[in-house]
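ARCHIVE CARD
Drawer: 12
Card no.: 0347
Subject: one protein chain, sequence and derived structure
Cross-reference: see card 0346
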Amino acid sequence: MKLRKNRYGVVGNPVSHSLSPDIHSEFAKQTKRALTYEKILCDADEFNSTLNLFFNSGGEGLNITVPYKGLAAEWVDSLAGHAQKTRVVNTVVKRENGFEGYNTDGIGLMRDLKNKGVRLKGERVLVLGAGGAATGIIPQIANESPELLRIANRTLEKAKILSSSMSSLFPEKDISALAIGQLHETFDVVINATSAGIDGKRLPIAQEVVKTAFCYDLFYSQNRSTLTPFCSWATKSGAEGISDGLGMLVEQAAEAFYLWTGDRPSGAEALKRLETKLS
Protein backbone atom coordinates (compact mmCIF):
# COMPACT_ATOMS: atom_id res chain seq x y z
CA MET A 1 0.00 0.00 0.00
CA LYS A 2 1.33 3.41 -0.97
CA LEU A 3 1.93 5.72 2.02
CA ARG A 4 -0.23 8.85 1.91
CA LYS A 5 1.78 12.05 2.20
CA ASN A 6 0.22 14.97 4.05
CA ARG A 7 0.18 18.07 1.87
CA TYR A 8 1.43 21.49 2.98
CA GLY A 9 2.57 24.63 1.20
CA VAL A 10 3.31 28.35 1.17
CA VAL A 11 1.18 30.95 -0.61
CA GLY A 12 2.60 34.30 -1.69
CA ASN A 13 3.64 36.58 -4.52
CA PRO A 14 6.54 36.26 -5.24
CA VAL A 15 7.18 32.78 -3.88
CA SER A 16 9.71 31.17 -6.23
CA HIS A 17 12.64 32.13 -3.96
CA SER A 18 11.11 30.49 -0.87
CA LEU A 19 13.31 28.13 1.15
CA SER A 20 10.31 26.76 3.04
CA PRO A 21 10.15 23.47 1.06
CA ASP A 22 13.79 22.75 2.01
CA ILE A 23 13.13 23.58 5.66
CA HIS A 24 9.99 21.47 6.00
CA SER A 25 11.62 18.59 4.15
CA GLU A 26 14.31 18.63 6.86
CA PHE A 27 11.64 18.71 9.59
CA ALA A 28 9.92 15.72 7.96
CA LYS A 29 13.17 13.76 8.06
CA GLN A 30 13.71 14.64 11.71
CA THR A 31 10.21 13.56 12.74
CA LYS A 32 9.92 10.67 10.27
CA ARG A 33 6.80 12.11 8.66
CA ALA A 34 5.72 11.69 5.05
CA LEU A 35 4.71 15.03 3.53
CA THR A 36 4.84 17.23 0.48
CA TYR A 37 5.38 20.98 0.63
CA GLU A 38 4.80 23.21 -2.38
CA LYS A 39 5.17 26.83 -3.45
CA ILE A 40 1.85 28.34 -4.52
CA LEU A 41 1.87 31.60 -6.48
CA CYS A 42 -1.35 33.58 -6.81
CA ASP A 43 -2.65 37.10 -7.35
CA ALA A 44 -4.59 38.92 -4.65
CA ASP A 45 -7.94 38.41 -6.38
CA GLU A 46 -7.25 34.65 -6.47
CA PHE A 47 -6.23 34.33 -2.83
CA ASN A 48 -9.50 33.04 -1.37
CA SER A 49 -10.14 30.60 -4.21
CA THR A 50 -6.53 29.36 -4.02
CA LEU A 51 -6.88 28.51 -0.32
CA ASN A 52 -10.29 26.93 -0.86
CA LEU A 53 -8.94 24.74 -3.66
CA PHE A 54 -5.87 23.72 -1.64
CA PHE A 55 -7.83 22.54 1.40
CA ASN A 56 -10.73 21.06 -0.59
CA SER A 57 -8.21 18.90 -2.45
CA GLY A 58 -6.70 17.45 0.72
CA GLY A 59 -4.30 20.14 1.97
CA GLU A 60 -3.46 20.00 5.69
CA GLY A 61 -1.82 23.35 6.41
CA LEU A 62 -0.44 26.50 4.80
CA ASN A 63 2.18 29.14 5.41
CA ILE A 64 1.32 32.62 4.14
CA THR A 65 4.00 35.05 3.03
CA VAL A 66 3.99 38.59 1.61
CA PRO A 67 1.77 40.26 0.68
CA TYR A 68 -1.15 38.12 1.90
CA LYS A 69 -0.83 37.91 5.70
CA GLY A 70 -3.69 40.37 6.13
CA LEU A 71 -5.91 38.54 3.65
CA ALA A 72 -5.22 35.30 5.48
CA ALA A 73 -6.53 36.81 8.71
CA GLU A 74 -9.80 37.56 6.92
CA TRP A 75 -10.03 34.08 5.36
CA VAL A 76 -9.65 31.94 8.48
CA ASP A 77 -12.58 31.10 10.77
CA SER A 78 -10.73 32.09 13.96
CA LEU A 79 -7.52 33.73 15.11
CA ALA A 80 -5.19 32.56 17.87
CA GLY A 81 -2.50 34.20 20.01
CA HIS A 82 -1.28 37.66 19.01
CA ALA A 83 -2.91 37.25 15.60
CA GLN A 84 -6.24 37.94 17.33
CA LYS A 85 -5.12 41.54 17.88
CA THR A 86 -2.70 42.18 15.03
CA ARG A 87 -4.72 40.37 12.33
CA VAL A 88 -1.48 39.32 10.63
CA VAL A 89 -1.44 35.58 9.82
CA ASN A 90 1.45 33.54 8.45
CA THR A 91 0.22 30.05 9.38
CA VAL A 92 -3.18 28.47 8.67
CA VAL A 93 -4.02 25.40 10.73
CA LYS A 94 -6.83 22.99 9.79
CA ARG A 95 -8.98 22.19 12.83
CA GLU A 96 -12.04 19.96 13.22
CA ASN A 97 -14.28 23.02 13.49
CA GLY A 98 -12.65 25.19 10.83
CA PHE A 99 -9.42 27.01 10.03
CA GLU A 100 -7.36 28.85 12.63
CA GLY A 101 -4.83 31.60 11.91
CA TYR A 102 -1.56 32.11 13.80
CA ASN A 103 1.49 34.30 13.46
CA THR A 104 4.72 32.49 14.26
CA ASP A 105 7.10 35.26 13.12
CA GLY A 106 7.58 36.78 16.58
CA ILE A 107 8.23 33.38 18.15
CA GLY A 108 10.72 32.59 15.38
CA LEU A 109 12.54 35.88 15.90
CA MET A 110 12.82 35.46 19.67
CA ARG A 111 14.09 31.88 19.39
CA ASP A 112 16.73 32.90 16.88
CA LEU A 113 17.85 35.87 19.01
CA LYS A 114 18.11 33.63 22.08
CA ASN A 115 20.02 31.03 20.06
CA LYS A 116 22.49 33.82 19.30
CA GLY A 117 22.72 34.88 22.95
CA VAL A 118 20.73 38.10 22.50
CA ARG A 119 18.21 38.99 25.22
CA LEU A 120 15.76 41.89 25.04
CA LYS A 121 14.82 42.19 28.71
CA GLY A 122 15.83 45.62 30.01
CA GLU A 123 17.30 46.63 26.63
CA ARG A 124 16.62 49.61 24.41
CA VAL A 125 15.03 48.19 21.25
CA LEU A 126 14.39 49.87 17.91
CA VAL A 127 12.19 48.38 15.19
CA LEU A 128 12.57 49.90 11.74
CA GLY A 129 9.36 49.75 9.74
CA ALA A 130 5.64 49.81 10.51
CA GLY A 131 4.18 47.33 8.04
CA GLY A 132 3.02 43.75 8.39
CA ALA A 133 6.49 42.42 9.22
CA ALA A 134 6.87 44.82 12.15
CA THR A 135 3.30 44.23 13.30
CA GLY A 136 3.91 40.49 13.41
CA ILE A 137 6.97 40.66 15.67
CA ILE A 138 6.34 43.59 18.02
CA PRO A 139 3.94 41.78 20.44
CA GLN A 140 6.56 39.10 21.06
CA ILE A 141 9.25 41.77 21.55
CA ALA A 142 7.04 43.59 24.06
CA ASN A 143 6.56 40.31 25.95
CA GLU A 144 10.31 40.22 26.56
CA SER A 145 10.09 43.39 28.71
CA PRO A 146 12.60 45.71 27.01
CA GLU A 147 13.39 48.98 28.79
CA LEU A 148 11.80 50.78 25.86
CA LEU A 149 10.60 50.03 22.35
CA ARG A 150 10.73 52.58 19.56
CA ILE A 151 9.05 52.11 16.18
CA ALA A 152 10.59 54.18 13.39
CA ASN A 153 9.23 54.55 9.89
CA ARG A 154 9.74 56.83 6.91
CA THR A 155 6.11 57.90 7.26
CA LEU A 156 5.69 58.99 10.88
CA GLU A 157 1.91 58.68 10.83
CA LYS A 158 2.10 54.98 10.03
CA ALA A 159 4.54 54.45 12.90
CA LYS A 160 2.21 56.35 15.24
CA ILE A 161 -0.75 54.17 14.28
CA LEU A 162 1.23 50.98 14.96
CA SER A 163 2.68 52.39 18.18
CA SER A 164 -0.79 53.34 19.41
CA SER A 165 -2.23 49.91 18.70
CA MET A 166 0.71 48.19 20.42
CA SER A 167 0.50 50.53 23.41
CA SER A 168 -3.17 49.57 23.83
CA LEU A 169 -2.13 45.90 23.89
CA PHE A 170 0.76 46.56 26.29
CA PRO A 171 -0.20 49.67 28.31
CA GLU A 172 2.55 49.03 30.87
CA LYS A 173 5.30 49.14 28.20
CA ASP A 174 7.23 52.18 26.99
CA ILE A 175 6.35 52.11 23.27
CA SER A 176 6.48 55.16 21.02
CA ALA A 177 6.95 56.21 17.38
CA LEU A 178 9.56 58.25 15.54
CA ALA A 179 10.28 59.21 11.96
CA ILE A 180 13.39 57.39 10.75
CA GLY A 181 15.03 60.69 9.86
CA GLN A 182 14.58 61.92 13.46
CA LEU A 183 16.56 59.09 15.06
CA HIS A 184 19.52 60.29 17.12
CA GLU A 185 19.57 58.18 20.31
CA THR A 186 21.48 54.92 20.67
CA PHE A 187 19.95 51.45 21.07
CA ASP A 188 21.02 48.04 22.29
CA VAL A 189 19.12 46.06 19.63
CA VAL A 190 18.01 47.33 16.21
CA ILE A 191 15.67 45.19 14.10
CA ASN A 192 15.12 46.00 10.44
CA ALA A 193 11.59 45.12 9.35
CA THR A 194 11.67 47.21 6.16
CA SER A 195 12.56 46.11 2.63
CA ALA A 196 15.03 49.00 2.30
CA GLY A 197 18.32 47.79 0.92
CA ILE A 198 16.73 44.75 -0.68
CA ASP A 199 14.86 47.06 -3.03
CA GLY A 200 17.88 49.36 -3.47
CA LYS A 201 16.82 52.09 -1.04
CA ARG A 202 18.99 53.19 1.87
CA LEU A 203 17.42 54.13 5.18
CA PRO A 204 18.35 57.68 6.28
CA ILE A 205 19.71 56.63 9.68
CA ALA A 206 22.61 58.25 11.51
CA GLN A 207 25.44 55.84 12.25
CA GLU A 208 25.33 56.53 16.00
CA VAL A 209 21.88 54.88 16.15
CA VAL A 210 23.37 51.43 15.47
CA LYS A 211 26.87 51.97 16.84
CA THR A 212 27.45 49.41 19.64
CA ALA A 213 24.03 47.78 18.93
CA PHE A 214 23.19 44.24 17.85
CA CYS A 215 21.53 44.67 14.45
CA TYR A 216 19.11 42.09 13.07
CA ASP A 217 17.66 42.08 9.56
CA LEU A 218 14.39 40.18 9.06
CA PHE A 219 15.48 39.68 5.45
CA TYR A 220 18.17 37.13 4.63
CA SER A 221 20.72 36.47 1.94
CA GLN A 222 20.55 33.11 0.16
CA ASN A 223 24.21 33.61 -0.72
CA ARG A 224 25.66 33.01 2.75
CA SER A 225 28.96 34.68 1.82
CA THR A 226 27.13 37.96 1.14
CA LEU A 227 25.62 40.21 3.81
CA THR A 228 22.22 41.82 3.33
CA PRO A 229 22.53 45.56 2.55
CA PHE A 230 21.29 46.44 6.05
CA CYS A 231 23.78 44.12 7.77
CA SER A 232 26.58 45.46 5.58
CA TRP A 233 25.71 49.05 6.46
CA ALA A 234 25.38 48.21 10.18
CA THR A 235 28.82 46.58 10.18
CA LYS A 236 30.41 49.63 8.57
CA SER A 237 28.58 51.84 11.08
CA GLY A 238 30.12 50.11 14.10
CA ALA A 239 27.44 47.63 15.15
CA GLU A 240 28.67 45.19 17.80
CA GLY A 241 26.91 42.27 16.16
CA ILE A 242 24.75 41.48 13.12
CA SER A 243 22.48 38.73 11.88
CA ASP A 244 20.13 38.28 8.98
CA GLY A 245 16.78 36.54 9.31
CA LEU A 246 17.54 33.03 8.04
CA GLY A 247 17.43 31.64 11.58
CA MET A 248 14.11 33.36 12.19
CA LEU A 249 12.74 31.83 8.98
CA VAL A 250 13.69 28.37 10.20
CA GLU A 251 12.38 28.88 13.75
CA GLN A 252 9.04 30.32 12.66
CA ALA A 253 8.69 27.34 10.32
CA ALA A 254 9.45 24.98 13.20
CA GLU A 255 6.59 26.52 15.20
CA ALA A 256 4.24 26.18 12.22
CA PHE A 257 5.27 22.54 11.80
CA TYR A 258 4.48 21.94 15.47
CA LEU A 259 1.05 23.56 15.12
CA TRP A 260 0.25 21.34 12.13
CA THR A 261 1.62 18.04 13.38
CA GLY A 262 2.16 18.18 17.16
CA ASP A 263 5.85 17.33 16.57
CA ARG A 264 8.46 19.94 17.49
CA PRO A 265 11.51 19.70 15.20
CA SER A 266 14.96 21.09 15.91
CA GLY A 267 15.31 24.48 14.26
CA ALA A 268 19.03 24.61 15.09
CA GLU A 269 19.67 21.33 13.30
CA ALA A 270 17.67 22.40 10.26
CA LEU A 271 19.46 25.77 10.15
CA LYS A 272 22.85 24.09 10.20
CA ARG A 273 21.91 21.89 7.24
CA LEU A 274 20.41 24.84 5.35
CA GLU A 275 23.53 26.99 5.90
CA THR A 276 25.66 24.17 4.53
CA LYS A 277 23.39 23.76 1.50
CA LEU A 278 23.49 27.49 0.71
CA SER A 279 27.23 27.98 1.28
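Annotation on reverse: The longest helix spans residues 246-261. The chain is about 40% helix and 20% strand.
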